[in-house]
Amino acid sequence: MVEFKNLKCEAVDKEFCTFEYCHLKSVNRTYKYISLKAKILQLPITNVKVNGALYQRHNGYKPFLYNITVDCCKFVKNQKSNPVASFFYDSFKEFSNINHSCPFNHDIILDKLSAESINHRVTNILPFPEGQYMLQLNWNISGINRAILKIYLALS
């Protein structure tokens, strides 16, 4: 079972983007979701690369299994081009407005992504060992690191 533990959003380049909100909301003991809104100050976005790295906690967070960089503009056009990126993208695409290829002429929103939507993927489709994990996403736009998103979760 997946449980969100924390969410951290950092705008590295505050002249390019800011986070209007970035929070983990606990509705009750078993239902938590994450939501964020990245306010983009320089539109349109035509060149996006995301580096996604998965870390497992063992005396600090250590690299675990995946560290990939994806050209988002190309990937959204052909999602079968990268199966690993597809695995993660399918977990959140219905909760996000990142559902079309470049250019992006709007703010980026992730709305009420629940642990249940991820649970099936990491327990049945591609089983992960129990433990504490962190998914770190570095958003490079036009070759410059603009934002870092860290999602902390536990798998039990």
Estimated helix fraction: 10-25%
Give the overall shape.
globular
Number of helices: 3
Which strand order does the major sheet show?
Answer: 1-8-7-4-5
By CATH, the topology is Ganglioside M2 Activator Protein, Chain: A
**Strand segment count:** 8
Order of helices and strands: EEEEEHHEHEE
Mean of residue pLDDT values: 90
Give the N-to-C terminal Cα separation.
5 Å
Protein name: MD-2-related lipid-recognition domain-containing protein
InterPro entries: DUF1091 (IPR010512)
Pfam families: DUF1091
Organism: Drosophila erecta
Account of the 3D structure:
The protein has 156 residues and is an alpha+beta fold. The protein has a single domain, classed as Distorted Sandwich (Ganglioside M2 Activator Protein, Chain: A), CATH 2.70.220. 17% of the residues lie in helices and 51% in strands. It contains 3 helices and 8 strands. The strands form 2 sheets. It has a 5-stranded antiparallel beta sheet with strand order 1-8-7-4-5. Strands 2-3-6 form a 3-stranded antiparallel beta sheet. Strand 4 and strand 5 form a beta hairpin. The protein is globular. The chain starts with a strand and ends with a strand. The model has no long low-confidence stretch (mean pLDDT 90).
